[in-house]
Amino acid sequence: MGVNVDLDFLIVQKMRRGDEKAFEDFVTKYYPGILKYCRIHVKDYGYAEDVAQETFMRFFQTLDRYRHYGKLANYLYVIAGNLCLDYHRKRKEIPLETLPESPAPAVPDQEERIVVGEAFACLPEELKETAVLFFWQGCRQKDIARILGISLSLVKYRVRRSKELLTAYFEKEGL
User: Which domain holds residue 169?
Assistant: First the structure.
């Protein structure tokens, strides 16, 4: 019989004690997924990195108040999601004359991501977040329900509907 140990709980305890290696392990484990999530929601790579880093800063600032109830990744996605929303709210407030005339150059080898990103952009807003978490982040449906604060049946509907719409989009584009 093995003991089921929650590694996230242990790493949080080590971080609270100031263990630098635990902080490093935590960031190494979760940063790539959070950055990927932020890049999907914030098209500018530099800002996406800023939002991902801010996600971890916010978590570390509240580490003493964090209560471990389940998957730590879910908590990080909630923080990142809120920061992405803040980014878009602030961006709407920027006067047009302060925006650069040409977009930032695309990151090399990103053609496929651009096509998929365009497909996701065509999804209705109520489906987009669920689709990103499920298809791009690989989150389980019950975790998505917790992250978004919606029912599991609604998540299942949104995943199915997103799949139908994405399939139709790719067929229409001949992909």
Answer: 107-175
Dump pLDDT digits (tens) for 41-72. Answer: 887 888 889 999 999 999 998 888 888 776 78
Q: What is the DSSP letter of 132?
A: I
Please give the C-alpha separations between residue 58 and each of 53, 66, 103, 162, in angstroms, as whole numbers.
Answer: 9, 11, 29, 31
Q: pTM above the 0.70 mark?
A: no
Strands (DSSP E) along 3-99, which ranges?
Answer: none
φ, ψ of residue 120 to 5 degrees: the values are -65, -35
At residue 173, the 3 state secondary structure works out as: coil
Looking at residue 5, its pLDDT comes to 57
CB 71, CB 8: distance < 8 Å: yes
174 in helix, strand or coil? coil
* DSSP, residue by residue, 98-119: GS-SSPPPPPTT-HHHHHHHHH
Instruction: Give yes or no: residues 142 and 160 share one domain.
Output: yes
Is residue 113 domain-shared with residue 99, that is, in the same domain?
no
* Region 141-149 average pLDDT: 84
Going along the chain, which residue ranges are E strands? none
